Each structure stands twice: as structure tokens, then as C-alpha cells.
Amino acid sequence: MINNKKTNVVCEILNYNDAETVFRLVEKIKNYSIFSSILIVDNASSDDSFSRLKERYQDNNKIVIQQTSRNGGYGYGNNYGIKYAYKKMDADYIVLSNPDVLFSNEMVQKLLDEMISKKAAVVAGTQRVNGKPIRTPAWKIPTAMQWTLIETKLWKYAAKQYYYDPKMFNQRDLQVDCVHGAMFLLDPKKFLDVGGYDEDMFLFGEETVLGYKLRAKGYKSFLLNNVYYDHEGSTSIKKSFNSTIKQDKITHNSKLIYMKHCLKISSTKLLFYKLVLNSIITKKKLKSYLHKE
Questions:
Q1: Would you say the C-alpha torsion 270, 272, 274, 277 has a positive or negative sign?
Q2: For residue 258, is it within any domain?
Q3: What's the domain range around 74?
Q4: Alpha-carbon span 7 to 30, nearest angstrom
Q5: What is the pTM of this model?
Q6: Distance (Å, whole) CA 9 – CA 18
Q7: For residue 244, what pLDDT band results from cuts at 50, 70 and 90?
Q8: Structural domain includes residue 215
Q9: How many structural domains are present in the chain?
Q10: Which own/partner contact pairs does 279-285 have at CB distance under 8 Å and 24+ positions apart?
Q11: Model pLDDT, residue 4
Q12: Residue 10, phi then psi, degrees to nearest 5
């Protein structure tokens, strides 16, 4: 095991109107030896989350509570937290974690060992839902066509180019383009060097943009296939956006931002993909309406 006695690892947790879920995670990890500090960033919650978080942990020197000036979305809130942890807390590495996950001290240590040995920008474990590893713990950077077709009846065609061969996940570790953002370890210097998350994206798709930016800069991301964390499945998101149609609208907007900012596609092609994505929403609305009838 790599000696990390002098390594400053901070766990950053982003909260929005979900203090109870944050409490559960923090109570689980607050005594983990791997973490020098835990940073909770309240993303301008509209409820009393911030005051409750401050009251609960005001006497714990290991836990730092910060609040953003506005709810600018997932990318905005996490960019704020990562900058704060790096510049104000001198973090060498940061575990970025959703509140609705569970992981062990040993799991983070394995991510850290991999990070140091591979000089990586990002290292993630394999996500489990309901105790079972998910089928796609990592994916390739998509083209505009692939990311659009994945939501249509032609998804099988797109999936062949978009996803890795499942057999590759039998390896101990795997260099990949993109990993799930629910929980992973990052090098804040490299993360900030590429500009962090795209703050024009409010929610969904941020991991793909980050993967694109890291690869374009020559930085590496790795997935550990024999290391796991458990994810309840967007608990906080469902509380804020309980409609799948609303979630789809946000997702589609993020995809269009990716196409524009990263892939630099023309305005004509962007309009085409926008029309296709809008047609998907229209079809879902019609089905929902007919079902109510």
C-alpha cells in the first residue's frame, strides 16, 4: 500500500434540500482515517438545510460547511466546492460524492493508490445499485449522433460505439473516457486545469463533458472493477425533479450544450439534433396524456 500519511484527501459533498441524506453519509464517513476533512457545500438550498448542517457540525473541526450564493446546478456547486477544497483547504485529492452513496475507508484508499501510481486525473470504483454492479460503469466519449440515437429505437446501434465491451470490465482496472459522477476521486489541479464542469449545464451529462475535456488535455481516467460503492439512485434529484419528462428536458439541454461547446458542431446540425430530442419529449408527453385518458 502506498504511504499517504502526508496526503491531504478531502471529501466534498454537494447538498440541495436533502440534509437528512447528507447526515446519514457524514455519520458513516466522519471518522474515516483517509479523510483529513469533509467539506459540505450547500447549493443555495430553498429549505433549512444550511442552518441544520451548520448546527449539527459546528463543533466538529473535521467538517467544513460552505454555501453557494445561488443554485447554479450540479456543475456550478461542485466547481465551487473543488476550488474551495483546493485553494482554502490545500487538498491534494478530493473525493467528490453525492449524498446518496455509501462507501468504505478501504475503498477510498484503493482509489488513492491507483491515482498515485497511475498519475491519473480521475479514478472511480464500480457503482452498485440494489447490491448489484451496474452494467455500464464507464463509457466512451460519444459523437452527437450516438448521444442522440441512444434515446431512440436505434439505441442498439449507438450502444455498440458508445459503450465498452462488457468483457473489458473483467480486468482489475481499465483506462476509460467517462465515469459516473456519483462518487469518484479526482486530482483538483488537473480538474481545474481543464476548467472543471461546464456550468452552463444545470444537471445531467456533466461526466461526459469532463471526460472529453480531460482526454483532450491528455489526462487519464481509470475505473477499478473490483472496488465498489453503493448508490441509491439519484435520491436528491428525484426530490427536486420527480417528473421524468422534466429530467429528460434537462438532459437534452445538457446534450446540446455538449455538442455545441465540445464537439463544435454547426448551428444547422445542432438544430437537427434539437428537433430529434424535442420529438422524443413530445412522444412521451403524448403517451402520458393518452394513459391518463
A1: negative
A2: no
A3: 9-234
A4: 17
A5: 0.91
A6: 24
A7: confident
A8: yes
A9: 1
A10: 280/151, 280/152, 280/248, 280/252, 281/245, 281/248, 281/249, 281/252, 284/244, 284/245, 284/248, 285/245
A11: 47
A12: -110, 135
Amino acid type, 89: M
Whether residue 256 lies inside any domain: the answer is no
31 within domain boundaries: yes
Cβ neighbors of 270 (< 8 A, separation 6 or more) are: 256, 259, 260
In whole angstroms, give the CA distance from residue 178 to residue 203: 16
Name residues whose C-beta falls within 8 Å of residue 59's C-beta, 6 or more positions apart in sequence: none
For the chain, give the mean pLDDT.
92
Instruction: Work out the average pLDDT over 62-68.
Output: 98
C-alpha cell at 195: 476548467
CATH number of the domain enclosing 36: 3.90.550.10
Long-range contacts of 86-90 (CB under 8 A, 24+ apart): 86/188, 86/189, 86/192, 89/8, 89/10, 89/37, 89/39, 89/64, 90/8
What letters, b where the CB count within 10 A reaches 16 and e where it falls short, cover 244-257? eeebbbbbbbbbbb
